[in-house]
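Renewal narrative, Specific Aim 1. Our central claim is that a sequence can be written position by position from structural information alone. The example that follows is taken directly from our test logs and has not been curated for this report. It begins with the C-alpha coordinates describing the chain, in the order in which they were read.
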Protein backbone atom coordinates (compact mmCIF):
# COMPACT_ATOMS: atom_id res chain seq x y z
CA UNK A 1 0.00 0.00 0.00
CA UNK A 2 1.12 3.54 -0.70
CA UNK A 3 0.99 5.88 2.28
CA UNK A 4 -1.39 8.77 1.85
CA UNK A 5 0.41 12.08 1.37
CA UNK A 6 0.52 14.47 4.28
CA UNK A 7 -1.07 17.84 3.59
CA UNK A 8 -0.48 21.37 4.82
CA UNK A 9 -3.23 23.68 6.02
CA UNK A 10 -3.31 25.50 2.67
CA UNK A 11 -3.84 22.15 0.91
CA UNK A 12 -6.99 21.67 2.98
CA UNK A 13 -8.36 24.98 1.72
CA UNK A 14 -8.13 26.77 5.05
CA UNK A 15 -7.20 30.46 5.21
CA UNK A 16 -5.92 32.03 8.41
CA UNK A 17 -6.06 35.82 8.53
CA UNK A 18 -6.30 38.35 5.74
CA UNK A 19 -2.68 38.62 4.64
CA UNK A 20 -1.64 36.44 1.68
CA UNK A 21 0.80 33.59 2.06
CA UNK A 22 4.26 33.88 0.57
CA UNK A 23 5.40 31.96 -2.50
CA UNK A 24 6.42 28.80 -0.62
CA UNK A 25 4.45 29.59 2.53
CA UNK A 26 7.68 29.17 4.47
CA UNK A 27 10.20 31.16 6.47
CA UNK A 28 12.48 30.87 3.44
CA UNK A 29 10.21 33.31 1.60
CA UNK A 30 12.14 35.98 3.51
CA UNK A 31 15.08 36.78 1.19
CA UNK A 32 18.36 35.24 2.28
CA UNK A 33 16.89 32.94 4.93
CA UNK A 34 17.76 29.24 4.52
CA UNK A 35 16.64 26.12 6.39
CA UNK A 36 18.34 22.73 6.71
CA UNK A 37 17.86 19.56 8.75
CA UNK A 38 19.78 16.60 10.08
CA UNK A 39 17.43 13.75 11.00
CA UNK A 40 17.84 10.50 12.93
CA UNK A 41 15.15 7.80 12.96
CA UNK A 42 15.99 4.39 14.50
CA UNK A 43 14.12 2.04 16.82
CA UNK A 44 15.35 4.04 19.83
CA UNK A 45 16.16 7.46 18.41
CA UNK A 46 13.89 10.06 16.81
CA UNK A 47 15.83 13.28 16.99
CA UNK A 48 17.86 15.78 15.00
CA UNK A 49 18.96 19.34 14.31
CA UNK A 50 17.24 22.11 12.36
CA UNK A 51 19.20 25.13 11.17
CA UNK A 52 17.73 28.54 10.36
CA UNK A 53 20.45 30.40 8.50
CA UNK A 54 20.39 34.12 7.65
CA UNK A 55 22.90 34.16 4.77
CA UNK A 56 23.98 37.69 5.52
CA UNK A 57 25.63 36.74 8.83
CA UNK A 58 29.35 36.40 8.33
CA UNK A 59 29.26 37.27 4.66
CA UNK A 60 28.39 40.95 4.89
CA UNK A 61 27.47 41.54 8.52
CA UNK A 62 28.67 40.03 11.81
CA UNK A 63 25.25 40.45 13.43
CA UNK A 64 21.67 41.31 12.61
CA UNK A 65 18.98 42.79 14.89
CA UNK A 66 16.86 40.34 16.84
CA UNK A 67 14.36 40.23 19.68
CA UNK A 68 13.46 37.55 22.20
CA UNK A 69 10.17 36.78 23.95
CA UNK A 70 9.91 34.27 26.79
CA UNK A 71 6.41 32.89 27.26
CA UNK A 72 7.63 30.58 30.01
CA UNK A 73 11.29 30.16 30.83
CA UNK A 74 11.45 26.46 31.65
CA UNK A 75 13.95 25.77 28.89
CA UNK A 76 17.58 25.69 27.85
CA UNK A 77 17.85 28.41 25.23
CA UNK A 78 21.60 28.81 24.76
CA UNK A 79 22.68 32.39 24.09
CA UNK A 80 19.46 33.98 25.34
CA UNK A 81 20.89 36.60 27.70
CA UNK A 82 23.28 38.16 25.19
CA UNK A 83 20.58 38.10 22.53
CA UNK A 84 18.28 39.99 24.90
CA UNK A 85 20.97 42.36 26.13
CA UNK A 86 22.37 43.37 22.74
CA UNK A 87 19.31 42.82 20.57
CA UNK A 88 21.24 40.84 17.98
CA UNK A 89 22.19 37.39 16.76
CA UNK A 90 25.59 36.63 15.29
CA UNK A 91 25.16 32.99 14.29
CA UNK A 92 22.52 30.86 12.62
CA UNK A 93 19.77 29.66 14.98
CA UNK A 94 19.81 25.92 15.62
CA UNK A 95 17.01 23.85 17.14
CA UNK A 96 17.53 20.43 18.68
CA UNK A 97 16.79 18.04 21.57
CA UNK A 98 16.98 19.28 25.17
CA UNK A 99 19.99 17.32 26.44
CA UNK A 100 21.89 17.76 23.16
CA UNK A 101 21.56 21.55 23.18
CA UNK A 102 24.99 22.13 24.70
CA UNK A 103 26.81 19.78 22.35
CA UNK A 104 25.03 21.40 19.41
CA UNK A 105 25.98 24.86 20.69
CA UNK A 106 29.63 23.84 20.95
CA UNK A 107 29.55 22.44 17.42
CA UNK A 108 27.95 25.65 16.11
CA UNK A 109 30.66 27.68 17.84
CA UNK A 110 33.36 25.54 16.22
CA UNK A 111 31.71 25.94 12.82
CA UNK A 112 31.64 29.72 13.09
CA UNK A 113 35.23 30.03 14.38
CA UNK A 114 36.48 27.99 11.42
CA UNK A 115 34.98 30.38 8.87
CA UNK A 116 37.12 32.89 6.97
CA UNK A 117 37.25 36.22 8.76
CA UNK A 118 36.88 34.72 12.22
CA UNK A 119 40.56 33.88 12.74
CA UNK A 120 40.99 36.39 15.57
CA UNK A 121 37.52 36.14 17.12
CA UNK A 122 37.60 35.74 20.91
CA UNK A 123 33.90 35.99 21.74
CA UNK A 124 30.84 34.65 19.92
CA UNK A 125 27.29 33.91 21.03
CA UNK A 126 25.80 30.73 19.48
CA UNK A 127 22.01 30.58 19.67
CA UNK A 128 20.50 27.12 20.15
CA UNK A 129 16.92 26.34 21.16
CA UNK A 130 15.46 23.01 22.18
CA UNK A 131 12.43 20.97 23.09
CA UNK A 132 12.26 17.58 24.80
CA UNK A 133 11.89 14.53 22.54
CA UNK A 134 12.26 12.04 25.41
CA UNK A 135 8.94 10.27 24.76
CA UNK A 136 10.15 8.96 21.41
CA UNK A 137 13.94 9.05 21.76
CA UNK A 138 16.69 7.97 24.14
CA UNK A 139 17.35 11.55 25.08
CA UNK A 140 19.98 10.75 27.74
CA UNK A 141 22.27 9.29 25.10
CA UNK A 142 22.82 12.80 23.74
CA UNK A 143 23.51 11.52 20.23
CA UNK A 144 23.75 14.86 18.45
CA UNK A 145 26.98 16.74 17.79
CA UNK A 146 29.32 18.15 15.20
CA UNK A 147 28.36 15.76 12.37
CA UNK A 148 24.67 16.62 12.66
CA UNK A 149 25.25 20.36 13.02
CA UNK A 150 27.43 20.40 9.92
CA UNK A 151 24.87 18.35 8.01
CA UNK A 152 22.01 20.69 8.95
CA UNK A 153 24.03 23.78 8.02
CA UNK A 154 25.33 22.30 4.77
CA UNK A 155 21.83 21.26 3.68
CA UNK A 156 20.29 24.68 4.39
CA UNK A 157 18.55 25.99 1.27
CA UNK A 158 15.87 28.42 0.17
CA UNK A 159 12.53 27.33 -1.28
CA UNK A 160 10.18 24.70 0.19
CA UNK A 161 11.00 23.50 3.70
CA UNK A 162 10.71 19.90 4.91
CA UNK A 163 8.22 19.76 7.78
CA UNK A 164 6.82 17.33 10.32
CA UNK A 165 8.98 14.53 11.71
CA UNK A 166 12.30 15.93 10.49
CA UNK A 167 15.30 17.58 12.10
CA UNK A 168 14.60 18.94 15.56
CA UNK A 169 10.98 17.85 15.19
CA UNK A 170 11.78 14.18 14.63
CA UNK A 171 10.69 13.08 18.10
CA UNK A 172 8.41 15.82 19.39
CA UNK A 173 4.79 15.45 20.51
CA UNK A 174 2.23 18.25 20.51
CA UNK A 175 -1.39 18.47 21.63
CA UNK A 176 -1.64 14.68 21.83
CA UNK A 177 -0.42 14.04 18.28
CA UNK A 178 2.96 13.67 16.63
CA UNK A 179 4.39 17.18 16.48
CA UNK A 180 7.42 18.47 14.66
CA UNK A 181 8.71 21.25 12.44
CA UNK A 182 6.24 23.58 10.74
CA UNK A 183 6.55 26.75 8.74
CA UNK A 184 4.43 29.44 7.08
CA UNK A 185 4.72 33.00 5.77
CA UNK A 186 2.73 36.11 4.98
CA UNK A 187 3.27 39.18 2.84
CA UNK A 188 2.19 42.43 4.45
CA UNK A 189 2.28 46.17 3.83
CA UNK A 190 4.09 48.23 6.43
CA UNK A 191 3.53 51.89 5.62
CA UNK A 192 4.06 52.12 1.86
CA UNK A 193 6.40 49.11 1.59
CA UNK A 194 5.62 45.45 1.02
CA UNK A 195 7.43 42.95 3.23
CA UNK A 196 7.48 39.26 4.12
CA UNK A 197 7.29 37.69 7.55
CA UNK A 198 7.92 33.99 7.98
CA UNK A 199 7.80 31.61 10.92
CA UNK A 200 9.30 28.22 11.72
CA UNK A 201 8.28 26.25 14.82
CA UNK A 202 9.37 23.19 16.77
CA UNK A 203 6.17 22.02 18.46
CA UNK A 204 6.23 19.97 21.67
CA UNK A 205 3.51 21.18 24.03
CA UNK A 206 0.23 20.10 25.60
CA UNK A 207 -3.36 21.27 25.31
CA UNK A 208 -6.34 20.53 23.06
CA UNK A 209 -5.75 21.16 19.38
CA UNK A 210 -7.91 23.69 17.56
CA UNK A 211 -7.62 24.29 13.81
CA UNK A 212 -9.26 27.48 12.55
CA UNK A 213 -11.38 27.47 15.71
CA UNK A 214 -12.51 23.85 15.29
CA UNK A 215 -11.63 21.53 18.23
CA UNK A 216 -9.61 18.44 17.33
CA UNK A 217 -9.16 16.53 20.63
CA UNK A 218 -6.55 13.81 20.26
CA UNK A 219 -8.56 11.46 22.50
CA UNK A 220 -11.30 11.46 19.85
CA UNK A 221 -9.10 11.23 16.76
CA UNK A 222 -6.33 8.70 17.49
CA UNK A 223 -6.45 5.12 18.79
CA UNK A 224 -5.13 4.07 22.17
CA UNK A 225 -3.56 6.26 24.85
CA UNK A 226 -2.74 9.85 23.98
CA UNK A 227 0.95 10.43 23.32
CA UNK A 228 2.77 12.08 26.19
CA UNK A 229 4.35 15.48 25.70
CA UNK A 230 7.59 15.48 27.69
CA UNK A 231 8.92 18.92 28.61
CA UNK A 232 5.96 20.89 27.24
CA UNK A 233 7.90 23.33 25.10
CA UNK A 234 7.80 25.26 21.85
CA UNK A 235 10.49 27.09 19.91
CA UNK A 236 9.38 29.75 17.43
CA UNK A 237 11.66 31.56 14.99
CA UNK A 238 10.31 34.55 13.07
CA UNK A 239 12.16 36.21 10.19
CA UNK A 240 11.28 39.32 8.23
CA UNK A 241 12.78 41.66 5.67
CA UNK A 242 10.96 44.59 7.26
CA UNK A 243 13.76 46.72 8.73
CA UNK A 244 12.69 46.46 12.38
CA UNK A 245 15.04 47.35 15.19
CA UNK A 246 15.66 45.07 18.18
CA UNK A 247 12.91 46.62 20.32
CA UNK A 248 10.35 46.24 17.55
CA UNK A 249 11.48 42.66 16.93
CA UNK A 250 10.96 41.84 20.60
CA UNK A 251 7.39 43.12 20.23
CA UNK A 252 6.99 40.90 17.18
CA UNK A 253 8.35 37.92 19.11
CA UNK A 254 5.80 38.43 21.89
CA UNK A 255 2.99 38.22 19.34
CA UNK A 256 4.51 34.97 18.08
CA UNK A 257 4.11 33.40 21.52
CA UNK A 258 0.52 34.69 21.72
CA UNK A 259 -0.25 32.67 18.59
CA UNK A 260 0.21 29.40 20.47
CA UNK A 261 -3.14 29.93 22.17
CA UNK A 262 -4.84 29.91 18.78
CA UNK A 263 -4.03 26.20 18.36
CA UNK A 264 -5.01 25.30 21.93
CA UNK A 265 -1.76 25.45 23.92
CA UNK A 266 -2.37 25.22 27.67
CA UNK A 267 0.97 26.87 28.60
CA UNK A 268 1.64 24.27 31.31
CA UNK A 269 3.93 25.22 34.18
CA UNK A 270 6.82 23.14 32.88
CA UNK A 271 6.72 24.62 29.42
CA UNK A 272 9.64 26.41 27.79
CA UNK A 273 8.03 28.67 25.22
CA UNK A 274 10.38 31.00 23.36
CA UNK A 275 10.20 33.13 20.24
CA UNK A 276 13.14 34.74 18.46
CA UNK A 277 12.44 37.32 15.76
CA UNK A 278 15.15 38.69 13.48
CA UNK A 279 15.33 41.06 10.53
CA UNK A 280 17.50 40.96 7.43
CA UNK A 281 16.34 44.45 6.39
CA UNK A 282 18.76 47.38 6.47
CA UNK A 283 16.66 50.53 5.99
CA UNK A 284 15.53 52.89 8.73
CA UNK A 285 13.01 51.27 11.11
CA UNK A 286 9.35 52.10 10.47
CA UNK A 287 7.29 54.08 12.93
CA UNK A 288 5.65 51.91 15.58
CA UNK A 289 2.23 53.16 14.49
CA UNK A 290 2.69 51.18 11.24
CA UNK A 291 3.39 47.80 12.85
CA UNK A 292 -0.07 46.42 13.61
CA UNK A 293 -0.44 44.65 10.22
CA UNK A 294 2.98 43.05 10.70
CA UNK A 295 2.03 41.86 14.19
CA UNK A 296 -1.15 40.28 12.84
CA UNK A 297 0.72 38.65 9.97
CA UNK A 298 3.22 37.25 12.47
CA UNK A 299 0.51 35.67 14.59
CA UNK A 300 -1.20 34.21 11.52
CA UNK A 301 2.06 32.75 10.18
CA UNK A 302 2.99 31.24 13.55
CA UNK A 303 -0.46 29.73 14.08
CA UNK A 304 -0.37 28.16 10.62
CA UNK A 305 3.19 26.92 11.14
CA UNK A 306 2.07 25.20 14.34
CA UNK A 307 -0.83 23.52 12.54
CA UNK A 308 1.45 22.48 9.67
CA UNK A 309 3.88 20.89 12.15
CA UNK A 310 1.11 18.44 13.09
CA UNK A 311 -0.56 17.97 9.71
CA UNK A 312 2.68 17.00 7.98
CA UNK A 313 4.14 14.90 10.82
CA UNK A 314 4.15 11.13 10.43
CA UNK A 315 3.52 8.53 13.13
CA UNK A 316 6.66 7.66 15.08
CA UNK A 317 7.37 5.01 17.71
CA UNK A 318 10.02 3.91 20.19
CA UNK A 319 11.22 0.40 20.99
CA UNK A 320 9.81 0.73 24.52
CA UNK A 321 6.31 0.81 23.05
CA UNK A 322 5.72 4.55 22.98
CA UNK A 323 3.88 5.78 19.92
CA UNK A 324 2.80 9.23 18.75
CA UNK A 325 0.17 9.07 16.03
CA UNK A 326 -0.01 11.46 13.13
CA UNK A 327 -3.25 13.40 13.15
CA UNK A 328 -5.67 11.61 10.78
CA UNK A 329 -6.30 13.92 7.85
CA UNK A 330 -9.71 12.50 6.85
CA UNK A 331 -11.03 13.27 10.35
CA UNK A 332 -9.55 16.77 10.20
CA UNK A 333 -11.19 17.46 6.86
CA UNK A 334 -14.51 16.04 8.09
CA UNK A 335 -14.56 18.27 11.15
CA UNK A 336 -13.56 21.35 9.19
CA UNK A 337 -16.29 20.67 6.67
CA UNK A 338 -18.89 20.09 9.39
CA UNK A 339 -17.97 23.46 10.89
CA UNK A 340 -18.25 25.18 7.53
CA UNK A 341 -14.55 26.07 7.42
CA UNK A 342 -13.99 24.14 4.18
CA UNK A 343 -16.40 22.66 1.67
CA UNK A 344 -17.08 18.92 1.72
CA UNK A 345 -14.73 17.28 -0.74
CA UNK A 346 -14.81 13.87 -2.42
CA UNK A 347 -11.28 12.88 -1.45
CA UNK A 348 -9.44 9.86 -0.13
CA UNK A 349 -7.33 12.13 2.07
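The sequence written for that structure reads:
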Amino acid sequence: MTAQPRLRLADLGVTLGTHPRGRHNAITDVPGVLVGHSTIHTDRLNTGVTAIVPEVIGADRRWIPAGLAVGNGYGKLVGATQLQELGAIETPILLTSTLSAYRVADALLGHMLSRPGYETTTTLNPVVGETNDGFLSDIRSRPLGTQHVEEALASATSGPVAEGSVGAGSGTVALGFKGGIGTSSRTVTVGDARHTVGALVQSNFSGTLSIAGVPMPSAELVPGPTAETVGNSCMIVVATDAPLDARQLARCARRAVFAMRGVGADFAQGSGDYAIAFSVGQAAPPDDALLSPLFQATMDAVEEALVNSLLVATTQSHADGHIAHAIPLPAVRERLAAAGVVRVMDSNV
